[in-house]
Inverse folding.
């Protein structure tokens, strides 16, 4: 990874400063692509997934350089899940064989999801604490665990992906502010607003489909 960072050093060069911290070219490009991705998600447009793949690769580079290894590893997971989500939105089926549609989780499934995140967070935090030199293992692990759940929900077109992203974005804003990634802080503040917008839009779609 260190050799790759050296080869891609021009992308990690500062483009300008924001509130006293440098904003790199890779952060700028990832910012723009990520906004386009979320707009496509809200509109249930399949182009969200290829945009997600490119943006995730760029953010992996940025986060690794910032020693946010949980977030960096999460981006590689996002790339794989984006390929899966792309397929789901094109060819995925519900239990009755019909095409995927925007819908709600059952109450039991919601409890299972919360339990999964509650278990994944301390396990991931302990791993990051022991295996890496990150200075924020538990803070890094929480949005990582939540994002795993959010990506699965999004790929299967469940409305509940949006409240999960609201929670992830709130925590991430604080995490990236701590690291001085101010353009990414701005991005996640925008994500927060867009997640609230998406939550409302998908609720309406689910009720219409129901």
């Amino acid at each position: 990874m260190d050799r790759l960072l050296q080869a891609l050093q021009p992308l990690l060069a500062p483009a300008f400063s924001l509130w006293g911290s440098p904003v790199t070219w890779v952060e700028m490009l990832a910012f723009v692509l990520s906004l386009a991705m979320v707009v496509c998600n809200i509109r249930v447009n399949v182009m969200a997934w290829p945009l997600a793949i490119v943006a995730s690769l760029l953010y992996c580079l940025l986060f690794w350089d910032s020693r946010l290894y949980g977030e960096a590893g999460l981006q590689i997971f996002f790339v794989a899940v984006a390929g899966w989500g792309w397929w789901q939105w094109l060819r995925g089926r519900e239990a009755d064989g019909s095409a995927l549609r925007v819908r709600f989780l059952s109450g039991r499934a919601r409890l299972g999801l919360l339990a999964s995140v509650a278990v994944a967070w301390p396990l991931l935090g302990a791993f990051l604490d022991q295996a890496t030199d990150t200075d924020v293992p538990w803070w890094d692990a929480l949005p990582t665990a939540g994002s795993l759940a959010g990506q699965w929900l999004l790929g299967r077109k469940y409305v509940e992906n949006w409240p999960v992203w609201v929670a992830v974005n709130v925590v991430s804003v604080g995490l990236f502010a701590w690291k001085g990634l101010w353009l990414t802080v701005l991005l996640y503040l925008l994500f927060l607003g867009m997640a609230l917008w998406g939550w409302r839009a998908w609720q309406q779609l689910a009720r219409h489909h129901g």
